[in-house]
Design goal:
With 703 residues, this protein is an alpha+beta fold. Helices cover 23% and strands 23% of the residues. It contains 16 helices and 33 strands. The strands form 8 sheets. An 8-stranded parallel β-sheet has the order 22-21-20-19-16-11-24-23.
Length: 703
């Protein structure tokens, strides 16, 4: 209402303002700004038919006209207010059902330029237009939320009674192994090793997670599965009793030399007996309830592109063949009700047909055949709804290799639209978050995913800039190390592929279960565990560089996501070495305390949760950027040089005026960090600071 009144009051620019505009010197491009946050678009997540106020900022008395360009339309914005160094223009548009794409044209004398998601541009490029998607919103609870990713087998063993046993069954040709030494490094072929982490262990560490400041727990897969990573699901309807509860425990493990899983009667009883399965589901329900009681959300990992060869629908290992209450698997019988769930290439091989398609040719990962099986689609959508509904009330799904599902991109989009409708109908506040590499724009149009694991617009540019390393530690690029121009260009380009509501909930990780630990990347050494060994991942690391990365993580647009153990100093090459056990009693306590402090700073500042972002400074191994929302104005400065740097940060660009003060909230160095407050007065529109080598600092305008 207030904005409409302003628009009505100021339909005409004053003669004085026109005079001042004509007297200006040159168009100040740095001052030009708009984005999709609620301060520049209201409502930021409109419904079809809504009238939307779109705002634009310029240097005071510096431009003649600001136009909104959308479709074939061109509409002039009205000057509505002036504040400090800036003029603010606005206009109102009505949005329909379709995506509303727009950019700005700014005219000052004979100078004209355009402004889009990439910032100031000489020519209009519709590829980078701002996008409003009427009817599309992401959950408010996820905007800027702090996620914590847990690989359950390696987090904490709270119940030894459910531990997988030596040779309980065979997996990929050999018996599984129960690891007795919690601190043992994972073996190079560590997929058969089980450390015993479980849901009871997570319940026992809830105080720790809450004390760290975690808002959301994201679990790697929890469903019944033969591997420790559980990306080869055996039964989508039940939590694996090996991480849940085993109430009926009978049968035998496999004798040496016998890898026939039809003889693995202990395993068969553990994972097929409904008493064990229901007890495990009940434990999970209790965990989610406890998380919710503490104000935390819970996200499940959905592996729907493929399942596992142990899966009851296929039953390659014949686990379910003779068990009561289970239908024959498609591998076992041509008459199986699940035959259409898989694509078989030889219709004459039954019983025990091995000709099914595997994802990337892996026969342990049979690809699910959605196009030819309406029954499969119905079952997966039922699973999707089941876990976000009563009694489990999970808060969303992370979708594994989501772009690979189906046999064509056309069908892939069709399925995810159905998936979204099913999940959001069951739980409108559930998040749908996909694993994806590359441009996600075609899935982020309001009808499929909410967002993605943010590799292109977060993990990769930060890794290259601070370490020069590729995210698997497979390559070193000296030309990208410290290259601020490349960093900002990559971030700007890839962030433009997100609508703002999607960017605000993007999963911003430094490490995860698929890539080397960030702390290991700071050694700038190319390597993998298979040929360098695990100890090399711990050597020559730089905790100062790691702290710089965490400061960026906690101040960048999106949802910062901590991979379990990163906060405690875990190192590791890429899979499987990145899945080391959490180092209880061996933690780096200073790093943990640092994470508590920087997470607190993140959560105390609304600008860091959902405010605007603005590049401020780029030099060799130096970057500075701002986050701002109303009077909450934050400047972040990174010095990755091995020498002290005196810097002038143009904080006027985020609204900090001369004569005001900025307080230092945190300063990290190679040797540690401090949160002692220091104040700096702003003069000549800049914040003048001296940063030590390998450091990061966060400054906030004093109120």
């Amino acid at each position: 209402m207030e904005v409409k009144v302003q628009l009505n009051k100021m339909k005409k620019v004053s003669k004085m303002h026109l005079y001042m505009a004509n007297m200006r010197s040159v168009l100040n491009r740095e001052a030009l700004f708009s984005d999709g946050t609620e301060e520049f678009v209201s409502p930021a997540e409109p419904m079809p038919g809504d009238k939307v106020i779109i705002r634009f900022r310029t240097l005071k008395d510096n431009v003649d006209h600001v136009y909104l360009l959308y479709g074939e339309n061109r509409k002039e914005l009205t000057l509505i207010s002036s504040n400090g160094n800036f003029d603010y223009y606005a206009t109102e548009v009505e949005v329909a059902k379709e995506m509303f794409c727009y950019c700005f044209q700014i005219i000052s004398g004979n100078v004209s330029c355009y402004y889009s998601q990439r910032g100031v541009m000489r020519n209009r490029e519709p590829y980078y237009d701002f996008r409003l998607i009427p009817g599309y919103r992401t959950p408010d609870w996820a905007k800027g939320a702090v996620f914590y990713q847990i690989f359950v087998d390696r987090f904490y063993n709270g119940n030894v009674e459910n531990d997988p046993l030596d040779r309980e069954y065979a997996y990929i040709g050999e018996g599984i192994v129960q690891v007795k030494d919690w601190m043992k490094y994972p073996a190079a072929m560590g997929v058969r090793e089980f450390y015993g982490g479980d849901l009871q262990g997570i319940l026992e560490k809830m105080d720790y997670l809450q004390g760290l400041g975690i808002d959301v727990i994201y679990f790697n897969p929890l469903f019944v599965s033969p591997s420790n990573h559980k990306y080869d699901i055996q039964d989508y309807d039940y939590i694996d009793p090996h991480i849940g509860r085993i109430v009926k425990d009978e049968g035998e493990t496999l004798p040496e030399g016998d890898n026939d899983n039809t003889h693995a009667t202990r395993y068969i009883r553990r994972v097929t007996d409904k008493a064990n399965l229901e007890a495990s589901n009940e434990l999970f329900r209790e965990l989610v309830e406890e998380a919710h009681r503490r104000g935390m959300k819970v996200i499940l990992d959905g592996v729907f592109n493929h399942c596992g060869s142990f899966n009851k629908w296929l039953d390659r290992e014949r686990i379910y063949e003779k068990e009561e209450g289970y239908q024959k698997g498609a591998y076992v019988s041509a008459e199986s009700p699940y035959r259409s769930f898989f694509q078989f290439n030889d219709a004459n091989r039954w019983p025990y047909n091995t000709s099914y398609d595997g994802w990337w040719g892996h026969d342990t990962l049979p690809k699910l055949n959605y196009e030819d099986s309406p029954e499969l689609v119905e079952d997966i959508l039922r699973v999707a709804k089941k876990w976000v509904s009563e009694p489990y009330n999970v808060d969303g799904w992370r979708l594994d290799v989501a772009a690979d599902l189906g046999h064509s991109q056309e069908y892939n989009h069709e399925f995810w639209k159905k998936f979204r409708e099913a999940v959001k109908t069951a739980n409108p506040e559930a998040i749908i978050l996909a694993e994806h590499y590359g441009d996600p724009e075609s899935w982020l149009q309001g009808r499929e995913w909410d967002t993605v694991m943010n590799y292109d617009a977060f993990m990769e540019p930060i890794t290259w800039f601070l370490t020069g390393m590729e995210k698997h530690s497979d390559e070193f690029r000296g030309d990208l190390l410290g290259n601020s121009e490349s960093f900002f260009a990559a971030m700007s380009h890839h962030m433009s592929r997100f609508p703002t509501p999607s960017l605000q909930v993007a999963m911003n990780e430094l490490s995860n279960h698929d890539h080397s630990r960030f702390l290991t990347r700071t050694n700038r050494r190319v390597g993998r565990v298979a040929y360098l060994g695990p100890e090399a991942a711990n050597q020559n690391i730089n905790k100062g560089t790691f702290r710089e990365a965490v400061v960026i993580q906690m101040t960048w647009p999106g949802a910062p996501t901590v991979y379990y153990g990163d906060e405690a100093g875990l190192c590791g090459w890429t899979d499987p070495d990145n899945r080391r056990s959490y180092p209880w009693q061996h933690e780096d306590m200073e790093l943990i305390e640092f994470h508590r402090d920087i997470i607190r700073i993140h959560k105390e500042n609304k600008a860091l949760l959902r405010g605007s972002y603005k590049e401020l400074l780029g030099m060799h191994k130096v970057i500075a950027y701002g986050r701002f929302m109303g009077e909450n104005q934050i400047a972040v400065v990174i010095n990755n040089n091995y020498e002290e740097m005196e810097l002038e940060i143009p904080v006027w660009l985020i609204g900090v005026e001369n004569g005001s003060y900025m307080e230092q909230l945190i300063l990290t160095t190679e040797t540690g960090y401090n949160i002692g407050r220091a104040e700096f007065m702003i003069a000549n529109k800049v914040l003048r600071v001296t940063l030590p080598p390998i450091s990061a600092a966060v400054y906030r305008k004093r109120m």
